[in-house]
Design goal:
Layout: H1 19-35, E1 41-45, H2 51-59, E2 63-68, H3 71-83, E3 90-94, E4 110-113, H4 122-128, E5 135-137, E6 146-147, E7 179-185, E8 203-205, E9 208-212, E10 216-221, E11 227-232, E12 248-250, E13 254-259, E14 262-267, E15 273-278, E16 288-296, E17 299-306, H5 316-321, E18 329-332, E19 334-339, E20 345-349, E21 356-357, E22 362-364, E23 367-373, E24 385-386, H6 388-392, E25 396-402, E26 408-414, E27 423-428, E28 431-439, E29 448-457, E30 463-474, E31 487-489, E32 492-495, E33 498-501, E34 525-526, E35 530-535, E36 537-542, E37 548-552, E38 564-566, E39 569-572, E40 588-593
Parallel strand pairs: 1-2, 1-4, 2-3, 4-5
Antiparallel strand pairs: 5-6, 7-40, 8-9, 9-10, 10-11, 12-13, 13-14, 14-15, 16-17, 17-19, 18-21, 18-24, 19-20, 22-23, 23-25, 25-26, 27-28, 28-29, 29-30, 31-32, 32-33, 34-35, 35-36, 36-37, 38-39, 39-40
Helix pairs in contact: 1-2
Length: 604
């Protein structure tokens, strides 16, 4: 069962049991029934004697703020709420509710206005209201909820690399420029995986960020940091996820999460497991686990890996497998699809030619693309992993199948025999980008890491352009020199430290990225106009100005992806657990662009 975090409940009844209080009780119940908001932050403008605050607190888990202009009422309401044991969870501020208030944008899940100036104060109320589902009630005599939609231009991060196409770009148009702290708090490091294990990325959808922990998942309100639920999930964690795939995919209704040989549709609001999908069997009596997870439209996509293929061990030995050269890739035996709402199996793709490289599974435009080995010996690997040499020494194919039927569309031979370390595939604007890394030689002092970029036409599989780039970093590095995932923003392909026109391969000489390897193992995460990454601590790079700036220096991001520019915010869920460096604060953080904030009201 998920842990639902409940705030304190009243211990005493501080109001007279009069007809007026009965009316307040009925009003509070109508507000709760109409808004359906029961957790997060609530604001009551014109809170009077605090009676409505008390009744809302009695019926919900909301943390409530009352604003009242009459100092006598403020004092009385504080005394009564304190007598009920609620003060702290419920607070009352002395201010004019008709004037600008000193609360950050997007903070409140529920705003109730009991003042006559609600209509004229509407822009200020909407400024404070949480996007993607916050409810405002402007008239207590006629309770009609106003639901705030998602911010126009706000990005999402529903899969490991932002989307099923693996672009590592949220396309959020808001997150850029100078940032200010929006909130900080749990989850902290206690139930997180050690950062060196480089686990899967957190996800974001519809105002909720889903944070992978140590065999558990947190759901947190992205706009105010409220922990909605915390669910233990045995056999779900994954180590060295960049050599594998994620076990999470987010939709508006469900978070799909794989564990062992099953996948669960978890209700995003309360953490309950509402649908269970079993791994389809091929009748060969080989024990398998659920590998890749993706949700597109009405379909849940998955893959089958041999039992134990996905790395789950937590140890110093396994940390060594997440760094350095020649790491083996987790691969799948076959792919399949389900109706993601009723659990009906739609198809299974199983050519039985060779292993499918998990890190290359890409979904776009009703197709699934991936690299499949031509080496049938890989299917005999008992651990479900293979080196790049074993996967490509007898050749490999770029494969496209129909995402609706699982039928083969094409399989094109591609020469990947030079690749030694990581291998990725991504899709954008009709192009498939295949990127892998290798060493130029064996001399650790003089030889350098190189990346090969194969760009293909997604419709036909034909190669459009090829380029090799010298990273300028020594081989056998231990800070992710071999592992950079490509990033695609609009029509630009970024394979750090270089950029290219996606369609022609022409180098973009206006891109002024740092020439040497940055200080950090994690991958870049992109918005529509900015990169976010680890450079010692959290940093950002403007694609328009080519300028760097720090985000914060008090804590460290994780060692893969945990900086998400989404929903108009930069989210940095805690991923520094196990860090022994001199960054003492381990906390989840959220930042808001300063350009989106109004200046605080000036004192007269």
């Amino acid at each position: 069962k998920p842990i639902i975090y409940s705030a304190s409940t009243p211990t005493a009844y501080p109001y007279a049991n009069t007809s007026s209080q009965t009316a307040t009780q009925q009003l509070a119940q109508r507000i709760v029934d109409t808004s359906k908001i029961r957790i997060g932050y609530g604001l009551v403008l014109g809170s009077g004697d605090g009676a409505l605050l008390y009744e809302l607190a009695h019926r919900t888990n909301l943390r409530l703020v009352g604003v009242e202009s009459d100092p006598v009422k403020v004092a009385h309401s504080r005394q009564r709420l304190a007598a009920a044991g609620l003060y702290g969870r419920v607070v009352v501020h002395h201010a004019d509710p008709a004037k600008p208030l000193p609360y950050t944008n997007y903070m409140f899940n529920l705003i109730v206005s009991g003042t006559a100036t609600a209509k004229t104060h509407r822009p200020e109320i909407l400024r404070m209201l949480r996007p993607a589902g916050g409810i405002a009630i402007f008239d207590l005599n006629n309770i009609k909820p106003h639901r705030r939609p998602a911010l126009p231009g706000a990005g999402e991060w529903t899969h490991m690399y932002a989307n099923p196409a693996n672009t590592v770009c949220s396309n959020d148009t808001h997150v850029s420029g100078r940032l200010a702290l929006q909130w900080f708090g749990p989850p902290g490091p206690r139930q997180m995986l050690d950062r060196h294990l480089r686990t899967v990325a957190p996800l974001y959808k519809n105002g909720i960020v889903f944070i992978p922990g140590n065999n558990r998942i947190y759901a947190v309100d992205a706009y105010n940091g409220t922990v909605l639920w915390n669910m233990a999930l045995a056999d779900s964690r994954r180590v060295a996820a960049f050599r594998d795939s994620s076990y999470l995919a987010a939709t508006k209704q469900y978070l799909y999460t794989a564990a062992a040989d099953q996948c669960y549709g978890v209700n995003v609001q309360n953490g309950s497991r509402e649908i269970t999908f079993d791994l389809p069997s091929t009748g060969d009596n080989i024990k398998r686990d659920w590998g890749h997870v993706a949700a597109v439209g009405s379909t849940l996509y998955g893959s089958a890996v041999k039992h134990g293929a996905s790395r789950r061990e937590v140890s110093r030995r396994i940390i060594k497998e997440t760094y350095y050269d020649f790491g083996s890739a987790v691969c799948s035996d076959y792919l399949f699809a389900y109706d993601r709402t009723d659990g009906t199996k739609r198809w299974v793709y199983n050519q039985n030619k060779g292993l499918i490289v998990n890190s290359t599974i890409t979904i776009a435009n009703d197709r699934i693309y991936f690299i499949q080995s031509d080496n049938p010996a890989t299917l005999k690997n008992k651990d479900g992993r293979a080196s790049m040499k074993q996967l490509t020494e007898k050749g490999a194919h770029l494969v496209a199948i129909n995402a609706k039927t699982g039928k083969l569309i094409y399989q094109k031979p591609v020469d990947l025999s030079a690749i030694q370390h990581s291998l990725y595939l991504a899709y954008a604007q009709g192009k498939l980008v295949l990127v892998g890394s290798r060493n130029a030689g064996k001399n650790k002092k003089t030889d350098r890491v190189w990346y090969d970029i194969h760009t293909h036409d997604a419709k036909t599989g034909k190669r459009v352009w090829f380029h090799s780039q010298n990273q300028g970093t020594a081989i056998s590095g231990d800070h992710g020199e071999q592992d950079h995932h490509p990033v695609i923003v609009k029509d630009k392909l970024y394979c750090e430290p270089f950029a290219y026109d996606l369609h022609t391969g022409k180098p973009d000489k206006s891109f002024k990225w740092i020439a040497k390897h940055r200080r950090g193992c994690g991958n870049i995460a992109a918005s529509a106009n900015t990169f976010f990454f680890r450079q010692n601590t959290a940093a950002m790079f403007s694609l328009s100005s080519n300028k760097y700036q720090p985000v914060t220096s008090i804590t460290r991001p994780g060692c893969w992806i945990n900086m998400l520019p989404v929903g108009g915010l930069l989210l940095i869920p805690e991923a520094s657990s196990g860090c022994t460096c001199n960054y003492a604060i381990q906390s989840s953080l959220a930042f808001i662009p300063v350009s989106r904030l109004k200046p605080p009201p000036q004192k007269p």
